[in-house]
Specification:
single chain, mainly alpha
């Protein structure tokens, strides 16, 4: 905190890295240190992405920072499965770094938490494993959105049959899901 008050980002990161190395697994102290480290690194990435192009670090440096953040938040998920901040931060970073299968795993974890499936979906949401009729109305919209996100990732991976099934399942949950409607149309057109 002193380092942050003095705006010494590097010292704060170094302190938190050391804390994550020395705290025992399973402790709240480790979880807090990982959460703080992830937040600091994420803030640095955001600030660097907003810099004018001529002042911004090169894409290799930005990607290295993204990978660092991913590692921190993946470790946090090992320590605190279901941590909302880790899930929310990981999804876009994994997509940006081309780790689409890992992004699907995070979506599977998030969907499992949302519908009360403790084991989640270790490889991402699977259409046959999601019973939209068993999902309460209040969760239909967020479940539909997660399924559409997963479908989009499968579409990007070229797995059109699975993408189509997930878009269809998303539309079962919320028939006005524009992302699912558009994605489903794109997949059907691509399969013609």
């Amino acid at each position: 905190e002193i380092s942050l008050a003095q705006q010494d980002f590097d010292a704060a990161v170094l302190y938190l890295r050391r804390a994550t190395e020395h705290e025992a697994s399973g402790t709240f102290e480790l979880q807090d240190a990982l959460r703080d480290l992830g937040r600091l690194l994420s803030e640095r990435l955001h600030a660097q992405e907003l810099m004018p192009v001529e002042e911004r670090p090169d894409s290799v440096a930005l990607n290295a920072l993204r990978l660092d953040i991913i590692g921190v938040y993946q470790r946090l998920l090992e320590e605190a499965p279901g941590d909302n901040t880790a899930i929310a931060t990981l999804k876009p970073l994994l997509e940006q770094t081309g780790q689409l299968h890992e992004a699907l795993k995070v979506l599977g974890m998030e969907l499992g938490l949302l519908i009360g499936r403790r084991d989640g979906f270790p490889y991402g949401p699977v259409p046959d494993d999601v019973d939209m009729e068993g999902i309460v109305d209040a969760l239909a919209l967020p479940v539909s959105q997660l399924l559409a996100e997963a479908a989009s990732l499968h579409q990007r991976l070229g797995e059109l049959e699975l993408a189509e099934a997930l878009y269809f399942k998303a539309l079962e949950g919320w028939r006005d899901n524009i992302d699912a409607l558009n994605g489903h149309t794109e997949v059907l057109t691509a399969r013609l």
